[in-house]
Design goal:
It is a single chain. The radius of gyration is 18 Å and the shape is globular. The chain has an 8-stranded parallel sheet. A two-stranded antiparallel sheet has the order 1-2. The longest helix is centred in the middle third of the chain and has 17 residues, at 125-141. The chain is of the alpha/beta class. α1 (29-41) runs parallel beside α2 (55-69), α1 (29-41) runs parallel beside α10 (246-253) and α3 crosses α4. The protein has helices spanning 29-41, 55-69, 89-103, 125-141, 155-162, 183-191, 205-209, 211-220, 224-234, 246-253, 262-269, and strands at residues 6-8, 14-16, 20-21, 45-47, 77-82, 110-113, 148-151, 171-175, 195-199, 238-240. The chain has 11 helices and 10 strands.
């Protein structure tokens, strides 16, 4: 694998094997500079969301980069997501158009339903997901979106969606890091033909203090962050590391010239680490 490696999606598209995450990057200079730096260093896959509140800054960085570099839009992969209050056909259509406008783009490469069971629609979540999905399918037919998928969906949410979906989801984006491998959900999603993306691949500070992870850092002469990202890649997961520091943005991409032993991959997958686990989507208070 190399930094320009790609995975094939079920619809025939290709998705870069590593993405740049923007969750908790503040709108304005912070998000703009982080994304522009990432693109200049070689990232070609940018992940944002309506809920992050930074689509305008992310979009400005993308467009400025294309102007300065000559890199064409088709060589970039941009993802954003439908927020919880916008489920249902009418609101989903408005949300898609709003994201396109804020990003300053003619189309999105990937659009995800961010959470399957929002508090606002907790008594009718499956129906609302189906309505949003139909609108997303129409947006694909209209050329606004190239691919559609899911985020934070568990097995029963996916099963409910597939009952009415005409276009099958090509991605499930979930939290994956040492200490939370979510193997069952990953295997289930892959079996249905989805590529799995892993957000928060570096977990929390507890991973960096873990003695086993520190021993791997010494063994491979790489940072703990690089070990985490490489583990995701070798596990067949698309990691979405986030940083606003240039040196770390560069470091997080420099993971294609070494390989973890199979034994270490297994140990990382089963690591016991005091991290903040992903929320139960049926109990999330938003």
């Amino acid at each position: 694998m190399e930094k320009n490696s790609k995975l094939k999606l079920a619809n025939g598209m290709e998705i870069p094997a590593i993405g740049f995450g923007t969750w908790q990057s503040e709108d304005g200079d912070e998000a703009y500079n982080a994304v522009l730096t990432a693109l200049r260093l070689g990232y070609r896959h940018i992940d944002t969301a309506t809920a992050y509140g930074n689509e305008e800054s992310v979009g400005k960085a993308i467009n400025d980069f294309m102007k300065e570099s000559g890199v064409s839009r088709k060589d970039l992969f941009v993802t954003t997501k439908l927020w919880n209050g916008d489920h249902g056909r009418v609101l989903t259509e408005k949300a898609i158009d709003s994201s396109l406008s804020k990003l300053g783009l003619d189309y999105l490469d990937l659009y995800l339903i961010h959470w399957p069971n929002p508090l606002k629609f907790r008594d009718c979540w499956a129906e609302k997901n189906a309505e949003s999905w139909k609108e997303m399918e129409d947006a694909v037919k209209d050329g606004k979106i190239r691919a559609i998928g899911l985020s934070n969906f568990w097995e029963h949410h996916i099963e409910a969606l597939l009952k009415t979906a005409s276009i099958k989801p090509v991605v499930n984006q979930i939290k994956i890091c040492p200490g939370q491998s979510q193997r069952k959900l990953v295997e289930y999603s892959k079996k249905l033909g989805m590529v799995v993306e892993g957000y928060s691949p570096l977990g929390t500070g507890a991973i960096f203090a873990n003695e086993f992870m520190k021993s791997l850092s010494e063994k491979y002469n790489r940072s703990v962050a690089q070990i985490c990202i490489r583990w995701s890649l070798q596990s067949g997961v698309v990691p979405l590391p986030k940083s606003v520091t240039e040196s770390r943005i560069k470091e997080n991409l420099n993971v294609f010239d070494f390989e973890l032993d199979a034994e270490d991959i297994e140990k990382i997958a089963n690591l016991k680490c005091d991290i903040k686990l992903a929320r139960n989507p049926d109990e999330a208070p938003f």
